[in-house]
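For the sake of clarity, the format in which proteins appear in this thesis is described at this point. Each number in the token line that follows is a code from a learned vocabulary of backbone shapes. One such record is shown here in full, so that the layout can be seen directly:
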Amino acid sequence: MQHVLFGRAGLRVSELCLGSMIFGDPRELGASSDDSKAVFDRFAEAGGTFIDTADHYADGESERLVGQFVGADRDHFVISTKWSVARNGGVVCSGNSRRNMVRAVEASLRRLRTDRIDLYSLHVWDFTTPWDEVMRGLDDLVRAGKIVYAAVSDTPAWEISRASMMAELRGWSPFVGVQIEYSLGERTAERDLLPMAAELGLGVTAWSPLAGGALSGKYRGANGAAQRGRRDAAALPARLLNIADEVCAIAQEVGASPAQIALAWVRARTHGSPVVPIIGARNVTQLEDNLGCLQLRLEPAMQERLDAVSCIELGFPHDFLRTDYVRRLVHGGEEGSLRPRKPLPHPVAEIAMSSGVTKK
């Protein structure tokens, strides 16, 4: 597995991130401690170093298991965790407030058995906490050495942009990354979040890159037809099933699994820096299948087919601003005389290192 630079930061992460949300979760879709350890070990064996968790996953058991698995080899791994959500503790133990941030980071450090968190993210925007409180609180944690980098997840692009500008103007530690839902089945981040990430130089991690498993092929029968009559498939939108059909068709053509095709598409979507898919697996077999995407490069014609079946309308003002009429108006009647400003290039050239750190 190669390593990439995370946005404009100097942080080096593996090109796939292991999601540990189901580690230790006793529910049906969870993974036992033994299965979680086997998945973690195989990911590390494949060269993976980027681990994602959160304080409320499996009521904290996910963080405890990650801390246990990392053990004495702590410096080899980049640990990402989050705060904001609490299943227990009531209203005072949830949200984005500085108080909850301090409470949560101390609890995460204990569960992870570490003295610092590499990437600490606001998990979900609460629409109430002022950004100066959030950004100053994160800056204090960076200065105290309890976290190394700050990031943000599941928050509107305009809120992230406002917080980033505030941090820049006040000399506080900025966000270095953003975590979003992104897949062939969910491309609405292309309207604002991904262009914002490219402009601000944020690293991007994509959760649910298989659209909740819909793109893994499990809704198709042995004859290659989508099992749309199944109870679990019946609830899926027709658009998502059509995308899954095309993913499975391409998978059959190239001799890969549908999951590998879907992950390869996400990995090919660079927005200033590589998009890092967060892969989750209940067992080693599922993980092995996901790891196969690292050897897969989609032909341009196949990417075009996937783009076409999954395309979305960007909506106003994006589609309006791309019309020939508007482009002629803003360029003094001379269409094409000025090219739109491109996203910020990655500031660091490719690094040739024995550890496999590259800019893609």
About this structure: The first helix runs from residue 33 to 45. The chain has a mean pLDDT of 89. The chain has one domain: 3-312.
